[in-house]
Amino acid sequence: MQGNGNAATVMLGLPGFVLLAVSDLDSEIEYAIETSEVMTGCPTCGVLARLHDRRRSDVRDLPAAGRAVTLVWIKRIWRCMESDCVRQTWTETCEAIRPRASMTERARREACRRVGEDGDTVARVAAQYGCGWQAIMAAVIEYGTPLVDDPHRLAGVTQLGVDETAFLSANGRHSTIFATGVVDLSGPTARLLDVMLGRSGKALCDWVSERDPAWRERIKVAALDPFRGYATALSSSLPDATRVLDAFHVTRLGFAAVDDVRRRVQQDSLGHRGRRDDPLFKIRRLLRRRADRLTDRGWDRLLAALAAGDVDQQIALTWIAAQDLRTIYDRTSRYGAEQHLHRWLTHCAEHDIPELRRLARTIDTWRGELLAYFDTGGVSNACASHCASW
Description:
It is a single chain. Helices cover 41% and strands 21% of the residues. By secondary structure, the chain is α/β, with parallel strands linked by helices. It has four domains: 7-101, no CATH class; 105-149; 157-245, Ribonuclease H-like superfamily/Ribonuclease H (Nucleotidyltransferase, domain 5), CATH 3.30.420; 248-387, no CATH class. The strands form two sheets. Strands 1, 2, 3, 4 and 5 form a five-stranded mixed sheet that branches. Helix 2 (105-116) packs across helix 4, helix 11 (314-326) packs antiparallel against helix 12 and helix 12 (334-349) packs antiparallel against helix 13. 27% of the residues are buried.
């Protein structure tokens, strides 16, 4: 037991505090608390102090049952009874809640963990805590910086993942800004190691080159998306590591080709971009789904729209190729995958569809990295799980 032994105080879980009252404020909860200290001495002279006044301090705490929580700390203001003491009055403090803080320290630590470890967005965490974006970001920076600067965070890495991320969407002032993420794939779950501004082989090569030679020698596998800059950087900085093409990005390339063909056929047949009532535009999302995940209604919509707008069956043939490319990861051996890939490339070559042939050339240039997936036990850039949802 802690505090005054009250069960509610124990549930509060804040050492040195007792719970006075709980208020239900629609979507939020408000806890009134005070410290368990009933007497104290002057920090300057040590003479026993007396209670002078109280004042209210509101801070955000950990959410409870999906609702934001506010702690209303009724702070004591103490007065020194020694007339010659230079300190007249002071307000009590505690490590769990900093002076003039808007959040408890345990809430700030948990916010950092959720953003860093769980991958939640700062905006989402801020909404659940009932506070501003800046408050959560300040906690992430304060508690996250020592973790990033800790040299031991890179220990034990034997499999590396490299991927691009759209850091900032394009607007009227700038184009899309990309960042390069480096992930540890050695453990059961992926762990973000670092993020570099930009999407270039030089940025990746510089990052790897900053690591000591012993660390680089321990990297046996490197997963990457189909960007030659990353491949060149890995081949020069980690020459002994097996490069593996990320499964998610291979699947995405196939369905991106379907989108390209749909747009071209739409433009050629109707003379304009897709509109709400156009049959091909209506099924644009269905075309990006796995065939075995389509419902009967989904199949009916898909086939009807293709019959109405895909006169030369170019979209259908590309869609079949994209589905077949995805199923290469259902093979259980490299030999089976090689046979599957050969049949797939032959299918692409048999049809005069520019986007499909371009896709085949791209996949063929990455043949070694794609098949390496089956030599490494299915290493992927922490994105392979996304393939199952298509």
